[in-house]
Amino acid sequence: MNVQHVAVMRPSVMNDPARDMRALSCADDYDPNSMPVDKARDVIARFLTPVSTTERVNVRAALGRVLAADVISPLNVPAHDNSAMDGYAVRYADLKGDGEVTLKVVGSSFAGAPYPEAVQRGESVRIMTGGVVPKGADTIVMQEHVRTADGKVTMGTGHKKGQNLRRAGEDLATGQIALKRGISLRPADIGLISSLGMGEVSVYRRLRVAFFSTGDELVSIGTPLGEGQIYDSNRYTIHGMLTRLGCEVLDMGVVRDDPGLLEHAFREAAASADVVITSGGVSVGEADFVKGLLDKLGEVVFWKIAMKPGRPLAYGKIGSAHFFGLPGNPVSVMVTFYQFVRDALLRLSGLDPVPATPTFKVPCTSRLKKAPGRTEFQRGILTRDASGMWSVRVTGEQGSGILRSMSEANCFIILPTDQGNVEPGTPVDVQVLEGVI
Ligand code: AMP
Ligand code: MG
To answer: Where are the alpha helices (H) located in 32-183, listed in sequence order?
Structure first.
């Protein structure tokens, strides 16, 4: 069985991840030592069942949450025919095709203070933008196109019936879908929901994500560094990335490279969260017991992805929880999170569809070293020159341990598998980081 077969499996089969994982590892074209980025992404996508529990939240608290049901408009927006201009509401039949006409101004209709009666023949009503068009009137003449004197208004020719008028229900009619299920609510959506008079909205519950760092060399902030020790930074980047994605985070700290402690941590994490994320210890050989442990606790595949940075990656299930075992190097953690975990978490959170990360081509001003055979995600700085043209240059050293390269970057430069070295001036794909994670 190959990955294509996994893609078309019946839902009942797809609900048995253990079976699917076993099937996958028997695939003809499946090479765990050189998984293409797209294929790994595709395989992960097959296993994702989004959260289904919903909750009602106040409209303000709904920012960034995923809408769980279509929002149906309970009213017409705008509620009444109203004026798009400051001017005069008139009966079109009163206007002349061949000369001026003078009408009596009988009252006013301002936003929030409508004219209470009907406009009769020979009459007009002073109206301001947003004012309700009074009964009888069907046309608005702009104030720039009239003369006024002694409570009367005079206007010329060339007007169209219904001009400068916004119809009731023009933006949104009663019963129409205002917002679709599966979107992440932005400020404009929050405003739209409020404009319908709704104080609450139905959203999916937040995805619960537990994470911990593995490694004997890791020290948490506040403890002085001993010989050969380093501060744990991955937990902090992961915390930040998860928070930006709107997840409920469960920080489980640093776990030593000790089978007993790791097993305990994996069990606890899987029991309390939808998703478990770890960093370090996935490069099989150096920490073989992680693999052994996960064989015992769940169904996990260990891949060497054909990418740089971020070669080792583990993915699978521990009980009902999804598991992502990210590499240890700080840049690799971010790149693999970005390329595999982000979309998966958004999908699990109920986003439908998951918006693609903005990617486009710009000339690269740096010379880039690149060996064919794997996808590279170099860290880039996108800038705009005085003439308004965008270009990208690479941040300095590209080592997978140099977190500063991520911190300075505002984009990834994505170099596809077959690409070799890049000469200055060549267009390259960039994926912007800001606003994405
Ligand atoms: P590992 O995959 O566990 O061999 O880790 C690869 C490299 O990443 C090693 O140099 C580790 O010291 C480093 N590393 C692992 N975890 C972390 C972490 N949480 N924070 C910073 N560096 C880490
Ligand atoms: Mg380690």
So the answer is: 37-46
Q: Any bridge partners for residue 245, and if so which?
A: none
- Quote the longest CA-to-CA distance of the chain: 96
Half-sphere exposure of 410 (CA within 13 A, CB side): 10
Reported as a pLDDT band with limits 50, 70 and 90, residue 14 is very low
Average of per-residue pLDDT values in the chain: 92
Residues with CB under 5 A from ligand 2 (ion): 215, 280-281, 328
Please report the pLDDT score of residue 28 as a whole number: 66
SS3 43: helix
Task: Report DSSP state, residue 354.
Answer: P
C-alpha angle 203-344-183 in degrees, rounded to nearest 5 = 30
Q: Give the distance (Å) from ligand 2 centre to CA of residue 312.
A: 12
Q: How does strand 299-304 pair with strand 248-255?
A: unpaired
Coil, strand or helix at 6: helix
Ligand 1 atom 17: residue of nearest CA = 328
Model pLDDT for residues 93-117, shown as the tens digit of each residue:
999 989 999 999 999 999 889 999 9
Q: Ligand nearest 216 Cα, by number?
A: 2
For the chain, give the number of residues: 437
C-alpha triplet 165, 123, 130: angle, nearest 5° = 30
Q: Is the dihedral of CA 23, 29, 33, 36 positive or negative?
A: negative
* Residue located via tokens 């300075």: 408
Contact 237, 243 (CB under 8 A): no
pLDDT tens column, 327-342: 999 999 999 999 999 9
Q: What is the spatial distance between Cα 328 and Cα 234, in angstroms, rounded to a whole number? A: 8
Mean pLDDT to the nearest integer, 386-402: 93
Both tokens of 331, joined, read 């840049």
Which is it for strands 123-127 and 87-90: parallel, antiparallel or unpaired?
A: antiparallel
pTM: 0.88
Ligand 1 binding pocket (C-beta < 6 A) is: 213, 215, 217-218, 230, 232-235, 279-281, 283, 286, 327-330
